Amino acid sequence: MKQSLIYVVLFLVTLSVKASYVLLPMDDATQQNHLKAYGITYWCLSKDYKASWLLNYRGGSFLLPDADEIRKECKIRGVSFEIISDSEEASILDEISSPSQNMESVILEKAPKIAVYTPKGKQPWDDAVTLVLTYAEIPFTPIYDEEVLSDQLLLYDWLHLHHEDFTGQYGKFYSAYKNTPWYIEQKKDSEALASKLGYSKVSQEKGAVAKKIRDFVVGGGFMFAMCSATDSFDISLTADGVDICEAMFDGDASEPNYQSKLNYGNSFAFKDFTLERRPEQYEFSDIDMTTKRRITPDKDYFTLMEYSAKWDPIPSMLCQNHTQLVKGFMGQTTSFDSALIKSNVLIMGACELNGEARYIHGEKGKGMFTFFGGHDPEDYQHQVGDPPTVLDLHPNSPGYRLILNNVLFPAAKKKKLKT
């Protein structure tokens, strides 16, 4: 009798363990550290736990199985969590599945392998994505031109590009920084690397890198770019085989009438743009709205678009947040002229006051890309040499959440098409 009672108790305990879940709420009022909540979810996936992303439910919450180590990890990282029963979980999923609710539950299957495109040496600026990945404790591998050109992108699911110049013009920093030690050293290192890899010009080597990244996306990879990596990447593809660099960048003059030789069919997101010919101008083209903006910092916000979570889960995932209004921030490429964005590209975040897009997404071949204008979501006008943002001061940043949406997005289970 006593032994039977023990078995019954053990059976009930087993049921209670299986029947409870960890909910990471992502609403504004409850979650004390939104950014690290993504890290917890990624950590669970890396340990082969199942996870669900509850789109539009309490700010895009995460549902995890209950386990002592998950609870412990949440406490260590300062992430708010709730323990819910089997019946509560069923009730939430029932609410989400209702046709009257713009919600969806998306299964996250596997932690994506992440690569960050960054040079080996120290840069005079920081990288928002590297900062937030480190803060959220999401592992990543730094790679650069040698790895890209030797096809090592095949090892990764997700690639980030940030403050980079794929045109070979050294960020158009010539006028302001040509005599500074870091600029001189960077130019020297870039030329040496291009020569080592078999290219006579940095612009040619960077163009080859851009095409390898293009192939990575076309083959099914996910690319996320910010700041100058967005437009300089598209410009590099558009100007393939055309010399758009002046003598101070590559030793000889640009091609005559190079604007007319651009092939906009090669670009991912932008069309019909005009390149900035002046080497002393800190700008690549008229894609960027930085010099055309007429808005004060206190009114600089952009609005996230709302999508059907059930029918458009991809942009819904990418726009999950605890607010639809996100504070704007600047960069070398701050935002994109909406008139120059291809019609098949989604504008997911926009500032209507300026007619500018801040956050866009599209497909290329079997893969996808997202471009996010600006340099650092919590540093309005980040300058060269400024210290990096301390994310402990911004654990609930809506702008940084958009970055982490893109990090987790490749983990989503692909649904079979209904047709």
Tell me what the CATH architecture of the largest domain is: 3-Layer(aba) Sandwich
CATH topology of the largest domain: Rossmann fold
Superfamily (CATH H level) name of the largest domain: Class I glutamine amidotransferase (GATase) domain
- Contiguous uncertain segments of 5+ residues: 7-17
Sum up the overall morphology in one term. globular
Distance between the termini: 59 Å
In N-to-C order, the SSE pattern is HEHEEHEHEEHEHEHHHEHHEHEEEEEH
Work out the helicity level: 25-40%
In short:
The chain is an alpha+beta fold and 419 residues long. The chain is 32% helix and 17% strand.
Q: How do the strands and helices of this protein lay out in sequence?
A:
Elements: H1 2-18, E1 20-24, H2 34-46, E2 51-55, E3 61-65, H3 68-77, E4 82-85, H4 86-97, E5 104-108, E6 114-117, H5 128-136, E7 141-143, H6 145-149, E8 158-161, H7 174-177, H8 181-196, H9 202-218, E9 222-226, H10 228-238, H11 247-250, E10 301-304, H12 313-318, E11 325-327, E12 336-337, E13 346-351, E14 356-364, E15 367-372, H13 398-408
Helix pairs in contact: 2-3, 2-5, 2-13, 8-9
Protein name: Asparagine synthetase B
